[in-house]
Amino acid sequence: MKTVELTTPLDEKQISNLESGDKVFLSGEIYTARDAAHKKLVALIEEGKDLPFDLQGAIIYYVGPAPSKPGQVMNSAGPTTSYRMDVFTPLLLKHGLKGTIGKGPRSKEVRDAMVKHGGIYFAAVGGAAAGIASTVKEAEVIAYDELGPEAIRRLVVERMPLFVVNDTRGNDLFEAGVAEYRREE
Amino acid sequence: MRELDVSRITEAVADLSIRTNIYLPDDVKKALQESLEREESPLGKEILQVILDNHDISEREKMPICQDTGVAIVFLEVGQDVHFTGGALEDAVNEGVRQGYKEGHLRKSMVADPVIKRKNTTDNTPAVIYTRIVPGDKVKIVFAPKGGGAENMSEVRMMTAADGIDGVKDFVVDRVSRSGGNPCPPIVVGVGLGGSFERCAMLAKEALMRPIGEPNPDPDYNEVEKDILRRINNLGIGPQGLGGRTTALAVHIKMVPCHIASMPVAVNVQCHVSRHGETII
Ligand code: SF4
């Protein structure tokens, strides 16, 4: 377990250096998408059309922020539960996505796809939404404004605190952490 | 007979929408603080500290504790001597939600059609409203915004008398075990026992309103709560599901009589952002 400062875009070496359990401070550009936006992204890929942002090396944060107050860059913006995106994620990883940020465990299919395509799954602390918002320095809606909180946003973050859950070697912090603290009755 | 203009209800609901989403009840904060002292996992401790720090930030900046400001669950206890004027009671509640979520810059998370169109109603209405008529001339409003992540981990099961209390315990522990990190642990677990299919689900939600630390009025069920809590914390799920000794802060059971053929059991899972507040008019 180490602490790593990372700036996007991530290269192969940075990604393969990450290990399950590492603490990461992430800086740079990331994109937000949750249920409705994922459905649209996958439909675009299946139709062979361009996406609203370049997936190559991209990181997607599963979040639907609270609406900003006047003059505020970002209102509360903690992670949403990741499993709802599991059906879409393997295809996105196949098309260049490198990282996802959310809360809760991923399916076997997603974990296998991360090993195969070299992807990382990070956990942000669910419910710690005001603190996370303070690490967001820029935010703009780049697609599907009509979806409100579910629109796709481009964010620039500075030292967003995350934990590596799944690395490219197939390790899983949920499994390892729970096994360590479980007590048989 | 007391005349009460429904605009008073609107004002109170709007205020509660904002207040409950920024300020967590003291009992929940205290339970989180105590869990930090007990937690064995270094990562778990770190996460609990992040959660506690977040309360300070949200209160200072007047930002919602969590971006998921929930479906607006509203319990109304209406004194039977109250006569409402100025409009329909439920419209007044929804107007309060509309105003509170707009003024408070809270997230609007309701879709009009749950399956096919899933289009956002854009004002977080409609609220889920439960009204009881009680003696007196007061109106009590309990407001509990409920996030989707934890609500999705909830379940109702029609058990049988033969399953007994051990069956109930196993079901609750198993439901939490299957939830893992999804409902943002540490969680609060509401358990409803008895009534009917829908009544026990409501009881489970009502059980979440009890302050943490207040014992169950029934000594037998108080022991059951402790036993289930111990078993849940022995699952090792821990803060955010990343391993640790703090999976749940409390288990609260609420029960009512039921049919001789039935034993309905409901589990309503609540995240660490266990929001609720009340006003009496
Ligand atoms: S489960 Fe609770 S803390 Fe987690 S995202 Fe939902 S509302 Fe927020």
Strand line-up in the sheet with most strands of chain B: 4-2-5-10
As a whole number of angstroms, the C-alpha radius of gyration of chain B is 19 Å
Number of domains of chain A: 1
Number of strands of chain A: 7
Overall outline of chain A: globular
Order of helices and strands of chain A: EHEHEHEHEHEEH
Average residue pLDDT of chain B: 97
> What number of structural domains do the residues of chain B give?
2
What order do the strands of the largest sheet of chain A run in, or round the barrel if closed?
A: 2-3-4-5-7
The rounded distance between the terminal residues' Cα atoms of chain B is 14 Å
Beta-strand portion of chain B reads 15-25%
Low-confidence stretches of chain B: none
State the major sheet of chain B: 4 strands, mixed
What is the residue-averaged pLDDT of chain A? 95
> Helical element count of chain B?
8
Q: How much is the radius of gyration of chain A in Å?
A: 16 Å
What is the overall number of helices of chain A? 6
